[in-house]
Amino acid sequence: MDIAFVIEKFILVTIIFAISLLIAMYSTYAERKVAAFLQDRLGPDRAGPFGMFQPLADGLKMFMKEEIIPTNANKWLFMVGPGLAMLTACIGTAVIPWGSDVQIGDRIVPLQVTDINVGILYIFGVVSLGVYGVMIGGWASNNKYSLLSAIRAASQNISYEIAMGLSIIALLLVTNTMSLKEIVEQQHGWQWNIIYQPLGFLIFIICAFAETNRAPFDLPECETELIGGYHTEYSSMKLGFYLFAEYINMFVSAAVMATLYFGGYNYPGMDWVLLNAGPLFGPLIGTVVFFVKIFAFIFFFMWVRWTIPRFRYDQLMHLGWKVLIPLAIANVIITGVVIAIIEKF
Amino acid sequence: MEPLTSKKKVLEQKPLTLAERMYLPAIVKGLSVTISHIFKKEATIRYPEQEREFSTNFRGMHSLKRDEQGRERCTACGLCALSCPAEAITMIAAERKQEEKELYREEKYAAVYEINMLRCIFCGLCEEACPKEAIYLDGPIVPADYLRKDFIYGKDKLVEQPLNNNK
């Protein structure tokens, strides 16, 4: 391992971290703007042109707010909760391939922090860890509503992780690899996995909504029943971390969906572009395309939030256990049978 | 409970069809409804910069009028205060001095004229009661303030600016 390798990875990690924070920041702004436009309103437009500095103002407000730790809260866990939520939200970006290899001078730089051969499992594990931030925060608050919310979050995540895992198994049958880099490379041009796995994608996106606690599955934050949910007792930047982690989660799951089902940085006509744009800018155009896909998914998340009402808790469990899991199993079986038949003939 | 009316509507509750149970067609329909609103005109405006047009009979802040020579029209007869259902108007009358002929039209004028904007209901009865056409509710919306005392508007805020053309 040479020093250039360390520097290269360090720069890449820093850039990705900065970008995911920036996108999370502007997702809060975009969420409010999208909500406004869908409801025939104007949205925030006071801070800066078109309200562009609204996230900065919100962040500043969060920092200036009084920090309150409830007397009966478990202080240590109360502080760990938001940090953990933020950490687990951020580390998911490590295995996502942001673009094909870039050539700078005679050095080939992969636009992926690490290409571990079980990339999907890693993502899956990180997503499962995400619920710990919520659970620890809800439990440490020593508040009944927070605890109820934490229980909801935990049971919801467990229920939907199964269906999500099964939908990924069907995808793995098609791709024959767990490395995200290879999965993306297989989807060259327009041969995106969505063509082979439409049902799998549908299950995956529904589960992604549930895993990120987004509407219509935002029961842990159900204001009408649980005040604020797990972050009822939180204030100041700790609350900000929780809200922020949700947007980073959204960004990461949008990136994962774009990677797994929508070809990552592949797009029709990419060979011609790669040939003409050179070894540095060709891959970067792919990265831009990838981010366009991510933004489209983030918009879809918001669009759904401002359309569909929240599920009732029993409906949520019904959908998870009695609909999605059987459907995902059927999807695995059908995929397996079709692949077996194709290989036979 | 006894039914209050004789009207009766029996709700038909059929079991959901497969398409309805899948939710997805309904969700797609809902999404198409919301996306169509992006292209519609906003119902809201950028308020302090833009203002909505008031209707022609809008009643806003009061103003005490002057006549064509720039003299105050009010003669402190007290009919506005009498007609006011909210008892928002108080005034103290005074006799016009010889040298004040340029300032007040009638021999008697209002030395103090106060309207409590927190009491006022903007009904416009003062406007109707005034025999001298001295008060009109033709101003803008009364602005917000912090203290109750600041809502008691005196002559400094109510009397309209003198015309400058006959100077």
Automatic annotation (TrEMBL), chain A:
EC no. given is 7.1.1.-
Q: Kindly provide the name given to this protein in its UniProt entry.
A: NADH-quinone oxidoreductase subunit H
Identify the species of origin. Answer: Pedobacter psychroterrae
Q: What does this protein do?
A: NDH-1 shuttles electrons from NADH, via FMN and iron-sulfur (Fe-S) centers, to quinones in the respiratory chain. The immediate electron acceptor for the enzyme in this species is believed to be ubiquinone. Couples the redox reaction to proton translocation (for every two electrons transferred, four hydrogen ions are translocated across the cytoplasmic membrane), and thus conserves the redox energy in a proton gradient. This subunit may bind ubiquinone.
Query: What does it catalyze?
Result: a quinone + NADH + 5 H(+)(in) = a quinol + NAD(+) + 4 H(+)(out)
Identify the keywords attached in UniProt to this record, alphabetized: Cell membrane, Membrane, NAD, Oxidoreductase, Quinone, Translocase, Transmembrane, Transmembrane helix, Ubiquinone
Classify the protein's membrane topology as the record does: Multi-pass membrane protein
Where is this chain's protein located in or outside the cell? Cell membrane; Membrane
GO cellular component annotations of the record: plasma membrane
Report the principal subcellular site.
membrane
Gene behind this chain?
Answer: nuoH
Q: Name one GO biological process term.
A: aerobic respiration
Q: How does it assemble?
A: NDH-1 is composed of 14 different subunits. Subunits NuoA, H, J, K, L, M, N constitute the membrane sector of the complex.
From TrEMBL, chain B:
| Residues annotated as binding [4Fe-4S] cluster 1 | 74, 77, 80, 130
Q: Which Pfam families match?
A: Fer4_7
GO MF annotation, one? NADH dehydrogenase (quinone) (non-electrogenic) activity
Report keywords, A-Z. Answer: 4Fe-4S, Cell membrane, Iron, Iron-sulfur, Membrane, Metal-binding, NAD, Quinone, Repeat, Translocase, Ubiquinone
Give a Gene Ontology cellular component term annotated to this protein: plasma membrane
Which residues does the record give as [4Fe-4S] cluster 2 binding sites?
Answer: 84, 120, 123, 126
Q: What are the coiled-coil residue ranges?
A: none
Enzyme class, broadest EC rank: translocase
The biological process GO terms on file are: aerobic respiration
Q: Does the keyword Secreted apply?
A: no
In Swiss-Prot or TrEMBL terms, this protein is called NADH-quinone oxidoreductase subunit I
Give the organism the record lists: Pedobacter psychroterrae
- Supply the gene name: nuoI
